[in-house]
Amino acid sequence: xxxxxxxxxxxxxxxxxxxxxxxxxxxxxxxxxxxxxxxxxxxxxxxxxxxxxxxxxxxxxxxxxxxxxxxxxxxxxxxxxxxxxxxxxxxxxxxxxxxxxxxxxxxxxxxxxxxxxxxxxxxxxxxxxxxxxxxxxxxxx
Length: 141
Prior knowledge:
Blueprint: H1 20-34, H2 41-103, H3 108-135
Helix pairs in contact: 1-2, 2-3
């Protein structure tokens, strides 16, 4: 049993938001500086030090995973934006081609299938956008 009256006691300042690991580490440093270690405390703080190393290693690995995930999301967003631009741009390309063909003497009847195709693509694009929006969970705070 630790007799705290037989040892020099000092108060360790603990601030709000400080982690338990930081508090334990401060206690360890304080005990080392004052040479007032009760039996078994060295082993306890050695274990805490190992735990601190392990947590630091795991946090570093987690940070690496988060960085990779951020890069993956950025790359996916770029691809998705390119796909959106392509899908939304096709009807304009068709409309421009129909306009050019009409200027060259083609009739609306001859080009109706292309006009219908552009209309279908626009409708499908709008439908896809609505489905994505409907399936996207709302952000929670």
